[in-house]
């Protein structure tokens, strides 16, 4: 009996962490952080019409880095900075784990802003070496399903979100990439190419529901 009680005590912090993360997504933390679901949807699938990204199934280390960067001002965003700053370090870590464990949506939402075309596919899958521009899929994996903590999934993300981030890299307003890789890539793209690449990735299918990228 005592052994069983000891085991339950060990589980309590894990259960509290999971409960807290779920509660924050639905209700906020009562200390200035708004409910995550207000922008990212009840299941973390994002909101295409507003360009809010999918969080479900993303790498936990990637998610935590982004939250930490918003909190410390390394990554700028008028919505995310105050919300991440209102979260404790433990809350940011719990949220990252929570969202990484959520299943992927069955299919990306249809996007009126997504305009997949030849230029988008060519640049995403082959790049343009005459401009020292590598293919996006060389880092983000075939189909844009993502690789580890540094190269997040692009497939099925809202076209508006992908394009806004590429413009931020291009303008230098976002600069939390490893070795400044994205800054170099984005500066090689024209505004039209940014929209084409964003549209192509937004139209790509996600892995089967319940699987991770």
TrEMBL record:
<keyword id="KW-0349">Heme</keyword>
<keyword id="KW-0479">Metal-binding</keyword>
<dbReference type="InterPro" id="IPR050597">
    <property type="entry name" value="Cytochrome_c_Oxidase_Subunit"/>
</dbReference>
<dbReference type="InterPro" id="IPR024167">
    <property type="entry name" value="Cytochrome_c4-like"/>
</dbReference>
<dbReference type="Pfam" id="PF00034">
    <property type="entry name" value="Cytochrom_C"/>
</dbReference>
<protein>
    <submittedName>
        <fullName>C-type cytochrome</fullName>
    </submittedName>
</protein>
<dbReference type="InterPro" id="IPR036909">
    <property type="entry name" value="Cyt_c-like_dom_sf"/>
</dbReference>
<feature type="domain" description="Cytochrome c">
    <location>
        <begin position="16"/>
        <end position="103"/>
    </location>
</feature>
<keyword id="KW-0732">Signal</keyword>
<feature type="signal peptide">
    <location>
        <begin position="1"/>
        <end position="18"/>
    </location>
</feature>
<feature type="domain" description="Cytochrome c">
    <location>
        <begin position="115"/>
        <end position="205"/>
    </location>
</feature>
<dbReference type="InterPro" id="IPR009056">
    <property type="entry name" value="Cyt_c-like_dom"/>
</dbReference>
<keyword id="KW-0408">Iron</keyword>
């Amino acid at each position: 009996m005592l052994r069983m009680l000891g085991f339950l005590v060990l589980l309590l912090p894990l259960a509290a962490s999971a409960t807290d993360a779920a509660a924050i997504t639905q209700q906020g933390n009562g200390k200035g952080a708004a409910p995550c679901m207000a922008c990212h949807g009840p299941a973390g699938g994002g909101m295409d019409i507003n360009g809010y990204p999918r969080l479900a199934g993303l790498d936990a280390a990637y998610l935590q880095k982004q939250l930490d960067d918003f909190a410390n001002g390394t990554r700028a965003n008028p919505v995310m900075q105050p919300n991440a700053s209102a979260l404790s370090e433990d809350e940011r870590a719990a949220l990252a784990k929570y969202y990484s464990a959520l299943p992927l949506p069955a299919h990306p939402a249809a996007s009126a802003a997504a305009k997949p075309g030849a230029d988008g596919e060519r640049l995403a899958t082959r790049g343009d070496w005459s401009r020292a521009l590598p293919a996006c899929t060389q880092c983000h994996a075939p189909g844009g399903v993502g690789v580890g903590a540094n190269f997040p999934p692009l497939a099925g993300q809202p076209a508006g979100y992908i394009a806004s981030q590429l413009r931020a890299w291009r303008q230098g307003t976002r600069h939390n990439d490893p070795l400044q890789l994205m800054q170099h890539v984005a500066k090689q793209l024209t505004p039209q190419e940014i929209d084409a690449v964003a549209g192509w990735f937004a139209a790509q299918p996600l892995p089967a529901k319940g699987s991770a990228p």
